Amino acid sequence: MDARPMLTLCGTYTLDPVARVVDYWIDFLGLPAGIALAPYAQLFQQMLDPASEFRRNRNGANVVCVRWEDLLPRRAGAAREPDWSAIESCVTELASALASFEHAVPCLVLVGPTSADGEAAGDPCAALAARLAQVPYVSVEDGARAMRRYRVGQVADPASDRFGHVPYTPEALAALGTTVARWHAAMQRRPVKVIAVDGDHTLWGGVVAENGVQGVRMDPPYLALQGALAAQNDAGRLICLLSKNDERDVRDLFAAHPQMPLRWSHLVAQRVDWNPKPGNLREIVAGLELGLDSVVFLDDNPVECAQMRAQCPATMTVRVPTEPERLAAFVDHLWLFDQPQVTEEDRKRAAMYRENASRAELRRDSQTLQSFLDGLELVVEIEPPSADEVARLAQLTQRTNQFNASLIRHQGGDVCPEGADALHRAVRARDRFGDYGIVGQIRARARAGCLEVDLFMLSCRALGRGIEHRMLAAVGAHAQACGLERIAVLYRRGDRNLPVRRFLESVFATEADDDSMWFAMPAAEAAKVSLDTSAQGWDERDAAPAPVAEGERAGPPAADPGALYERIAHDMTTAAAIEQAISARIAPRPDIAVGFIAPAPGMERDIAAIWRQVLRMETVGAHDRFQELGGKSIHLVQVHKLLLERLHVDVDITTLFQHPTVASLAAHLSMRADGRKTLDAAQQRGARMREARARAAKNAGVRA
Predict the structure, then answer these.
(1) Rounded distance, CA 99 to CA 33, Å?
(2) Could you give the CA distance from residue 620 to residue 176 in angstroms, rounded to a whole number?
(3) What is the distance between the alpha carbons of residues 181 and 24, in angstroms, rounded to a whole number?
(4) For residue 412, which of 429, 388, 395 has the smallest C-alpha distance?
(5) d(CA 229, CA 44)
(6) How many Å is the maximal CA-CA distance in the chain?
(7) Helices (H), 166-263
(8) What is the 3-state secondary structure (H, E, C) of 362-404?
(9) How far apart, in Å, do the first and last CA atoms of the chain sit?
(10) Helix %, strand %, coil % for the chain, to 5?
(11) C-beta of residue 270 within 8 angstroms of C-beta of residue 281
């Protein structure tokens, strides 16, 4: 059984070409994901049937590809044009189907561009998004936006639509497939928490030390990048400045240019000096108690980028274009800026980390742990989560690594347990410096007299305050209330969850002797667990993130992800460039029963070249069967189109099925051409004879 996250696509038209684009990006980025195509044109069956591929997906994501023309009724008449007066009812029906069940995984509804030309009243895509705004894990994307973003010229393909229900051109399909892949990649990759950015030639044009505070350029492209970073700050990313300058000059620059979207107050940390940037970044990240693998570093200087990649390889380093005119496209196509969902906790994150600086100062001034906790005035609430907090709890499973006992990840509503005997608690905390928000969660189920906890996690910014002890005590108290004698916590060893292992080993007085095990104790004993602030050997380092070895990443991709995203933002910003990259992927000829026989010159070679292009294959033999090479009906639609464009031969799909090899198809087309030539010659002889008779009759009339 394939344990990879599965991306299930269903829709109203043929989706094989979209899946081809998504598959390219999954391979390009090294994402651990597979693609499943629902049966053709069974959109509503997939959404309403609990046994469908769409509804059974519990690990990955779902995508709904819709074209309004496929859902609208047809007007009477020979043209059978879609009746756009019914668009409102179509929107209502689709929204009702999507809202009729609980989505266990994230779902993207991608509305393809239409040929309405103003016939549709209002904006049906916006209307659909409004109706689904309160449905958890469902998001709507307008395909028309993808056409603009990827600069698609020709969108519709009437021929492919007629023969294979593929309504869009290859470039338009590349834009739609890339939109799906970009959304999916944002959920699959490790969360970006910090963006560290250079100043000179990156946030502004010029060098402040040489051009002066007033001499640097604040051209629109630089302001576009600044605006994007300010938006990232608003969405919860922490913005830091790494600049080789005098700090006073840079502070004066920010103060002297009020038109800058990025303000000094947006910066959670700065290192403006002449020290190496990798060392400065390590200091900042350590102070924030985060890992280098949660950082994106942006700099225009290739030397600085090379140093960062060499000394901090876990950081995603992306070189910014040196040409200002390319900055706007770079900003729009830097996938690392994407966030599929922004929670209220995200929006508060920058403020939370600033509050952490005040807590760190209190900790340094406190003589004992108890005096530190007393000074915090900490309040902890362990309560059932509300419906609008489920998204944050699912996000927590993705982002929490240090203090995550089981390392179970969730992306949607399946974070909520089912059954009357299930326990699910959100952990909130606040102190005199501010509100931490939701920092942890517990999930458990009763089994054979034991309350088994499979989710036990706490954000690293809340460690070392006894919250984890209160969580375990809450588990013990709940077990006692349910008449259960024991509790057990599932632990799975990971690359970075050493802090939770230390906690479990100390509280349960048991060493973790396996990569996966249950830590167990009597419920009554668990209910009494508390932090012993007088214990000797307490070390603040226990509350800090476990260090990550440079270059160490949990799982794929093995390639440098920063370099991959840099290539996308620099070179793959149009649908034409993306389609060209996909077309360059050539597969070897498969090992089939028929030996390779080179196509003969002329018609056979022309047809073989078309097959190679359509099938993305290195070589095609004259007697290779189309199906054995991986060809499908959707590929025959493309073959038909290219035969018409290149050879000016119009062949129906049935004929292509009947002649499954290059040689047989070439022979058929040659015979047809010969027959047409014979017919044409006969017709020409008949025309000449008729003309001769007419001339003879005319001449006879003149003599008479």
Answers:
(1) 26
(2) 30
(3) 9
(4) 395
(5) 40
(6) 137
(7) 170-188, 208-211, 220-234, 247-256
(8) HHHHCCCHHHHHHHHCCEEEEECCCHHHHHHHHHHHHHCCCCE
(9) 96
(10) 50, 15, 35
(11) no
State yes or no: pLDDT of 123 exceeds 80: yes
Domain 6-188 class in CATH: alpha beta
pTM: 0.73
* Side chain identity at residue 175, one-letter code: A
Structure tokens at 311: 């000394």
In the chain, the amino acid numbered 473 is A
Q: How far is CA 633 from CA 53, 426, 654, in A?
A: 22, 51, 10
Tokens representing 463 are: 């460690």
Measured between alpha carbons, how far is 145 from 148 in angstroms, rounded to an integer? 5
Q: What angle do CA 17, 18, 23 make, to 5 degrees?
A: 100
Token output for 291: 């890992």
Q: Does residue 385 contact residue 426 with C-beta atoms inside 8 Å?
A: yes
Please count the residues of the chain.
704
194-339 folds as: Rossmann fold (3.40.50)
Give the list of residues 6+ apart from residue 574 with CB closer than 8 angstroms, or none.
150, 151
CA distance 251 to 249: 6
Number of helical (H) and strand (E) elements in the chain, helices listed first: 28, 16
Closest CA to 471 of 408, 537, 404, 411: 404
Architecture of the CATH domain 591-704: Orthogonal Bundle (1.10)
CATH class entry, domain 346-543: alpha beta
Q: Classify the C-alpha dihedral 209-213-219-225 as positive or negative.
A: positive
> Which residue carries 């309160």 as its tokens?
134
**Looking at residue 471, what DSSP letter applies?**
H
- Identity of the amino acid at 120: A
Query: pLDDT for 383-396, tens place per residue?
Result: 999 888 888 888 88
Report the interhelical angle of 87-99 vs 124-131 (nearest 10°): 30
Q: What is the mean pLDDT of residues 28-47?
A: 92
Same fold, 346-543 and 591-704: no
Of 120, 270, 101, which Cα lies nearest the Cα of 197? 270
pLDDT given at position 414: 73
- Kindly list the distances between the CA atom of residue 347 and the CA atoms of 27, 114, 295, 593, in Å, as whole numbers in the listed order: 33, 35, 18, 60
**CB-based burial label for 681 (10 Å; 0-12, 13-18, 19+):** exposed
Q: How confident is the model at residue 652 (pLDDT cuts 50, 70, 90)?
A: confident
Element (H, E) at 468: helix 467-481
Spans of all domains in the chain:
6-188, 194-339, 346-543, 591-704
Place of tokens 């008479």: 704
Q: How far is 503 from 84, CA to CA, in rounded Å?
A: 62
